[in-house]
Structures are given as C-alpha cells and as structure tokens.
Amino acid sequence: MSKDLNQCNFIGRLGKDPEIAYMPNGGAIAKFSIACGDDYKKDGQKVEKTNWINVVAFGKLAEIIGEYVKKGSKVYISGKQETDEWEKDGIKRYSTKINAREMIMLDSRGAGDSPGEQQQAPSHPTPQQAPSGGMDDFDDDIPF
Known about the structure:
This protein has one helix at residues 59-68; strands at residues 8-14, 19-22, 28-42, 45-58, 74-88, 91-105. The chain is mainly beta. It has a domain at 8-39 and 46-109: CATH 2.40.50.140. Strand 2 and strand 3 (28-42) form a beta hairpin. The longest helix has 10 residues, at 59-68. The protein is globular, with a radius of gyration of 21 Å. The protein starts with 7 loop residues before the first strand and ends in a 39-residue tail after the last strand.
C-alpha cells in the first residue's frame, strides 16, 4: 500500500478539561474533544452548527496539553485521522479521532486568568522583531 496524505487541521475550543492517563511505560496520553463552529444558510436563514472533534495525543505533547490546556482553551490541532473498529453484540462499531502531532495554544497569555483582559501584540514590530536581511536597502518611493 502506498503512503498517502492523512493530515487534518482544526481550530476550536475544548469542551472540557483533557483527560490525562499514563501507559505502563510511563508515556502520557491526553484525550479531549474540541468544538469547531460552522454556519450555513438554509431557506435564507443562517444556521450555526458545532462539530465535535475527538483528539488524542501521546508523549511530550500529551504532557504539555495536560499542563497548559483546559476547558474553553482555543487551540490549533494538526494530526492524522484514525478510525477504531470493534464489535459489540455482533454489531460492528466505529469511532473516529484525530491523533494530534502538533498543538498551538491560540488564547492570549493571561486570558484564562481574568476573562475580560487580553494582552495585545504590538501593532508594529519592535526593533528586536524587525526582520533582518537587507530590508533597509529598499527605496521608500516604491510606486505601489
């Protein structure tokens, strides 16, 4: 079988605190779900829908999730889709989840401490953030 692309990317908020467990070898496992909002029009009316995405993470990523992410946290998740299959009472059952490979916390620092406060990034780069590589050599009179 060839190796095809299996990559999923989501931005959403955790519906509850992640569940953290440890394997016999000491490796961490984090299980959680994120709500991804969507909307569409039906009969001229806007309809909002929430899709719940089940996510699992292992190892160091699971430890980070357990320490820094909680219910309501906004996160970017990138990983691969996996489908589990089992049989119960003679009926095949399926469950789909995302095996996370990357997670980025999208809440601003301190946003969880007090709901009304959010730290803002500077609107223009400070000297430490300015890109290097000869950008000062360009003429300021560019016609566009």
